[in-house]
Specification:
422 residues, alpha/beta, 31% helix, binds uridine-diphosphate-2(N-acetylglucosaminyl) butyric acid, UDP-N-acetylglucosamine 1-carboxyvinyltransferase activity, UDP-N-acetylglucosamine 1-carboxyvinyltransferase, cell shape
């Protein structure tokens, strides 16, 4: 199993290119299921979850090919889909497989998708996805661990108000409603930039959508969708950009992030400025300079545009080496402090009480072997390793590979002493 070996203590300097967003790529690959025409996506990140989604789509009979080796352009052809199914073997490795449910049901009138089950960061049910699609006329049974969904004729437009804001739920409804009969109104919709990017792709495919980027999205269903005329470029990954910003805030240095959207990172940038970083945005570049030890910053995760849960672990790592103490509240997932015990192994002072963690910064972390437990937890351990004394080994980095493209190569390009070992 691959590990990362980090020799900490070096500041980060130089330029790094930010990839396309994983959490936009995953629904947008599924959106290709909505048409028989070949859909071309650009800026697709080459990471493990995208490979899993490609496997899932090919397993249904879709043609999915990278334009060339190493290219970030993906050509998807769902004209050849024969089996609208997402089997347990693939879904268990990636919860986002649930994103196939809405488009399959809308285009083929049936879908069989395995229930994702629990995961490291919480129980994460999909009850809202099911409830919303039922409101659109789908008959859904859950049997033998599978969601069996079908609809007589087309899905019908409906008003859907979810109990909580759900990102992939909103995405499933958007895709289903695009091909439904009549009007769908999504109240309490997710406003994440990845949801907006999906809506923009669907509009390019002929969907009639308004209000995306707000909590109320209105979709007028159409009979059929087509391929976008031009390849659709996937929005930059704000979480990858935020992770690099945190790495610089913790380890010090001067880094330009190319291909990033500052307007998608307001809450993260505010917190890092509070921690002492100087951050400037020019066009599609973000530049961060950090020349002092960070100051501890408290924060609370919440839905976009507030501070993202996907950045909680990384900003916690910054707090681990900061001056002072800070309180962190996690409000989205019930069990997203799995990285705490591993950060403590590196010498961090953290106390957890329910959904709150109090971090008291230490001057120096000390390298050790630690274990990644989920994607963003892995990123926090890498950041901690970059500013720890001596050697840190991060084990189980398959978690990191699920959601970051070439993270260690990108960090090495900034001067970090980091290598992949077996
Ligand atoms: N929830 C339910 N029932 C549902 C749906 C959600 O109870 O039917 C609960 C969840 O358990 C959670 C909350 O609602 O407590 C919000 O979950 P949401 O549905 O928004 O999460 P998600 O769509 O499964 C996406 C991202 C996650 C990110 C969350 C929150 C993708 C593929 N995944 O998950 O990304 O943390 O939104 O922003 O878009 C990651 O990239 O590391 C990651 C975990």
């Amino acid at each position: 199993m691959d590990k990362l070996l980090i020799r900490g203590g070096k500041p980060l300097n130089g330029t790094v290119t930010i990839s396309g967003a994983k959490n936009a790529a995953l629904p947008e690959l599924c959106a290709a299921l909505l048409t028989a025409e070949p859909v071309v996506l650009d800026n697709v990140p080459r990471l493990q979850d995208v490979q899993t989604m490609i496997k899932l789509l090919r397993n249904m009979g879709a043609g999915v090919e990278w334009q060339a080796e190493g290219s970030h352009r993906l050509v998807l052809n769902a004209g050849t889909v024969t089996s609208p199914e997402a089997p347990y073997e693939l879904v268990k490795t990636m919860r986002a497989s649930i994103l196939a449910l809405g488009p399959l049901l809308a285009r083929f009138g049936e879908a069989t998708v395995s229930l994702p089950g629990g995961c490291a960061i919480g129980s994460r049910p999909v009850d809202q996805h099911i409830k919303g699609l039922q409101a659109m006329g789908a008959e859904i049974r859950v049997e033998h661990g599978y969601i069996l969904a079908k609809v007589n004729g087309r899905l019908k437009g409906a008003r859907i108000t979810t109990d909580m804001i759900t990102v992939t739920g909103t995405e499933n409804f958007l895709m289903a409603a695009a091909l439904a009969e009549g009007e769908t109104v999504l109240e309490n919709a997710a406003q994440e930039p990845e949801v907006t990017d999906l809506a923009e792709l669907l509009i390019k495919m002929g969907a009639k959508i308004s209000g995306h980027g707000t909590s109320r999205i209105v979709i007028q269903g159409v009979d059929r969708l087509h391929a976008p005329v031009q390849p659709h470029p996937i929005v930059p990954d704000r979480i990858e950009a935020g992770t690099f910003l945190c790495a610089v805030a913790a380890a010090g240095g001067d880094v330009a992030l190319v291909g990033s959207r500052a307007d998608h990172l307001d809450a993260v940038i505010d917190k890092l400025r509070e921690a002492g970083a100087s951050i400037n945005a020019i066009n599609n570049q973000l530049r961060i300079t950090m020349s002092t030890r960070p100051v501890a910053v408290g924060f609370r995760t919440s839905e976009y545009p507030a501070f993202p849960t996907d950045m909680q672990a990384q900003l916690m790592a910054v707090n681990c080496v900061a001056q002072g103490a800070a309180k962190i509240s996690e409000t989205i997932f019930e069990n997203r402090f799995m990285h705490v015990n591993e950060l403590v192994r590196l010498g961090a002072h953290i106390e957890v009480d329910g959904h709150t963690a109090v971090v008291t910064g230490v001057e120096r972390l000390s390298g050790a072997t630690v274990m990644a437990t989920d994607l963003r937890a892995s990123a926090s351990l890498v950041i901690a390793g970059l500013c720890a004394d001596g050697e840190t080994v991060v084990d189980r980095i398959y978690h990191l590979d699920r959601g970051y493209e070439q993270m260690e190569a990108k960090l090495r390009g900034l001067g970090a002493d980091i290598e992949r070992i077996k």
